[in-house]
Amino acid sequence: MASTLTVKDMNQEIVRDCMKGLGPVSKSVLSRKTGLSFPTVSKTVDLLCEIGEVEEAGTEKSGGGRCAALYRLNPVFSLYLLLTVENDTIHWSLKDLEGNSLKEETSEENFPILTAMEAKIESIRTQFSCLKGIVIGAAGMVSGGKVVLTAGGSELTGVNLQEHFSRKFGIPVRAVNDMNAVAAGRWSLAGRSDGCCVCIYLGKNGMGAGIVINGKVWQGASDFAGELGFLPDMPGKLRPADKNFAPSRMLEIYCKIIQIYASVLNPERVVLYRNPFLDGALEELYRECEKVIPEHSMPLLEISDSYETDYEQGLMVIANMLKERDI
């Protein structure tokens, strides 16, 4: 039989998860939505109010009787650190539960990148005692929190960032591939539940893709999906620092990749995050792709300026799923 403490913790988690994204809500509504009895919800909400995780947020409009109190999650009770790393560049943003940025910074590091990340996290944790979780987006193949593969041989290759930082700081940590986070964010902001979307980005580490199918990020059997540098005739051509990188051939390369995804996944939309090679190129991309892809199977192509927004949103989606037990 579960202990009383375990049952209490479970009830708190049920109520907490239900309140996320709801805004001000009454105890009776929480009871209906969670399936917990009203006395259980009432006691649980009161306990969460005592520790500051939940706060009162006014009352319901009067219907002639006594107005029920409304409650919401305290947005600054739990703060999350979203940290991205690409080569020697670190960007971090401290977010509250509502996704508001309390502080953020971008820096180019001269120190070993892992040491620099540790120092930044330690500094932030010292300043903000309410830090409850960390989500790391890394440019490269990431599997189970471990950086398996990076272009250019980053020192993070082989490091399990999840294990390393959760052990060091004692809070939940998730480490994910950058494009998987971008795709998750794009889908979240679109507010859709079904369909297929492919997001493609060219950065310092080369070109990569993130895939969402029916609301779920598709990472493949070993988290290898979207590693475009391993496509036939692509090795050494998708990273600006590579000697075989040819700016004059980038539109041709984009067309080939779109054609591959169109024939394998048949997505409704392919999002291409803007770079100088794509400026004014949308019509030409359509024209060249339609030479190969049947008209009724041609995906909608979109050149987007929202890479950073989508990336941050994806990391925040993951942050909202972190649990204390994930340490």
From TrEMBL:
Signal peptide residue numbers: none
Record flagged with keyword rRNA processing: no
Key words of the record: Carbohydrate metabolism, Xylose metabolism
CDD domains the UniProt entry points to: ASKHA_ATPase_ROK
GO BP terms: D-xylose metabolic process
Role this protein plays: Transcriptional repressor of xylose-utilizing enzymes.
Family the entry assigns: Belongs to the ROK (NagC/XylR) family.
The name this protein goes by in its record: ROK family protein
Lineage: Bacteria, Bacillati, Bacillota, Clostridia, Lachnospirales
